[in-house]
């Protein structure tokens, strides 16, 4: 959708003919490092060129009017700066409302209301972080409309706070960080404890990253996400009775193997095993990528999926079917689910000249098992959340 047409929509929907400001926040994929962020480990995400546009102008009163081209049936959702608390009836608009409220509570002076139209081309429920994208799109728009100057990592943390405290999902920092700090053609290796990060150029020679959408929707709020998090916390508490550690991310695989008997519950032990091994794989992945060892990088992706399937148990028939179909194709170096799991998307590293055949074959095998089709996109790594000049 062109920006010019979004501006026309904005003007028609709000009967507001000022020239609006335009903002964009991407979605994200995670190359590797899944369910490690809230375990004090590393993640390796990248912001993609799909994302959320926000078109906005300030108002002279304190009304805030939201409209989404993705939820046109909800019409304009109107509230005011004094009424920003969570309201089920406001459905999707709770994400930007939550961001606004969190920014105000953080001390930022928002001096008037505004009109805003959103349009996202990230498929909803695909696990590419449409919610973090809308949070960060709102963050940058509020920052610019009200001449605030907010440290970007701080804004990222405010986005996470929205998920944790306002929406009620105990998610980690990965999504908001990838979206707020993304850089064209780079992935970010992030230490989720210290927030130290390294940009790694994604130069994949004659390979591309394919995003495979299972089209099995899921919302984090009703998934087993919070349950996994509690299982890991329990495992950590068992280990802490003997070991002086603050997170599972501090354990090497060797230390884990020597101490895993301290975890009393079998399920919790499997969850912790994933967190520890996945963390090691993630650090290794940066090394392999830097050395252009794409084969080895691909193998780590495969191992990550297997661990998420058997030890962390967050895949499901759709993700397992699509990833296994991908593994079988010629020219594929590796494939795994990406994001929280339970549906949503997987990624595969595919040789450029095999892409067409790959899509046809994987789709056919997927449809055979699952009964409906998958969707494929070529991932392009774009910039993080920003104002757009037009
Ligand atoms: C979701 C959460 C992230 C992260 C991933 C799993 O995307 O929002 O914080 O935990 O799941 O890696």
Q: Output the CATH class name of the largest domain.
A: Alpha Beta
Strand content: 15-25%
Radius of gyration: 21 Å
CATH topology of the largest domain: Ribosomal Protein S5, domain 2
- Give the overall shape: globular
Low-confidence stretches: none
The neighbouring-strand order within the major sheet is: 5-4-6-3-1-13
Q: Give, in order, the helices and strands.
A: HEEEEEHEHHHEEEHHHHHEEHEE
Supply the CATH architecture of the largest domain. Answer: 2-Layer Sandwich
Please report the number of helical segments: 11
Ligands, deduplicated: alpha-D-galactopyranose
Structural class of the helices, strands and pairings?
alpha+beta
| Tally of structural domains | 2
Q: What is the helical fraction, as a range of percent?
A: 40-55%
Q: Report the span from N to C terminus.
A: 14 Å
The major pleated sheet works out as: 6 strands, mixed
Averaged pLDDT, please? 96
The strand count comes to: 13
Architecture overview:
The protein has helices spanning 3-14, 94-105, 130-145, 152-167, 174-181, 225-240, 253-259, 266-290, 294-310, 317-328, 355-370; strands spanning 21-30, 42-43, 45-58, 63-68, 77-80, 114-120, 186-191, 197-201, 207-213, 332-337, 345-351, 375-378, 386-388. It has 390 residues and is an alpha+beta fold. The chain has two domains: 3-202 and 383-387, Ribosomal Protein S5, domain 2, CATH 3.30.230; 207-379, Alpha-Beta Plaits. The strands form three sheets. Strands 5-4-6-3-1-13 form a six-stranded mixed sheet, sandwiched between helices. A four-stranded antiparallel sheet has the order 10-11-9-12. Strands 2-7-8 form a three-stranded antiparallel sheet, sandwiched between helices. The longest helix is centred in the last third of the chain and has 25 residues, at 266-290. It is globular. The structure holds alpha-D-galactopyranose. Alpha-D-galactopyranose (GLA) binds at residues 34-35, 37-38, 171-172, 174-175, 339-340.
């Amino acid at each position: 959708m062109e920006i010019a047409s979004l501006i026309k929509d904005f003007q028609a929907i709000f009967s507001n003919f000022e020239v609006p400001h335009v903002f964009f926040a991407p979605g994200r994929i995670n190359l590797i490092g899944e369910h490690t962020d809230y375990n004090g480990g590393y993640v390796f995400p990248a912001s993609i060129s799909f994302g959320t546009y926000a078109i906005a102008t300030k108002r002279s009163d304190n009304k805030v009017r939201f409209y989404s081209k993705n939820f046109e049936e909800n019409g304009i959702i109107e509230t005011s700066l004094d009424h920003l608390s969570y309201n089920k009836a406001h459905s999707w608009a709770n994400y930007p409302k939550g961001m606004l409220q969190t920014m105000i509570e953080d001390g930022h002076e928002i001096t008037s209301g505004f009109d805003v139209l959103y349009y996202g081309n990230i498929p909803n429920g695909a696990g590419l972080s449409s919610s973090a994208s809308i949070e960060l799109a709102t963050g940058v728009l509020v920052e610019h409309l009200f001449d605030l100057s907010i440290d970007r990592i701080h804004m990222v943390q405010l986005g996470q706070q929205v998920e944790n405290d306002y929406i009620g999902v105990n998610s980690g920092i990965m999504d908001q960080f990838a979206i707020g700090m993304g850089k064209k053609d780079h992935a970010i290796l992030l230490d989720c404890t210290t927030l130290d990060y390294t940009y790694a150029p994604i130069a994949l020679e004659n390979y591309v990253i394919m995003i495979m959408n299972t089209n099995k929707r899921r919302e984090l709020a009703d998934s087993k996400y919070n349950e996994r998090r509690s299982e890991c916390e329990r495992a950590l508490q068992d280990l802490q009775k003997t070991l002086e550690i603050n997170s599972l991310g501090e354990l090497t695989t060797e230390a884990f193997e020597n101490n895993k008997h301290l975890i009393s519950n079998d399920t919790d032990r499997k969850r912790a095993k994933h967190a520890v091994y996945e963390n090691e794989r993630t650090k290794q992945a940066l090394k392999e990528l830097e050395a252009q060892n794409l084969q080895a990088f691909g193998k780590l992706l495969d191992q990550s999926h297997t661990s998420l399937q058997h030890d962390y148990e967050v895949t499901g028939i759709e993700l397992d079917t699509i990833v296994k179909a991908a593994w079988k194709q010629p020219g594929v170096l590796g494939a795994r689910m990406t994001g929280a799991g339970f549906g949503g998307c997987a990624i595969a590293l595919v040789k450029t000249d095999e892409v067409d055949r790959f899509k046809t074959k994987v789709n056919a095998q997927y449809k055979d098992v699952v009964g409906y089709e998958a969707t494929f996109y070529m991932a392009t790594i774009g910039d993080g959340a920003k104002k757009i000049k037009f």
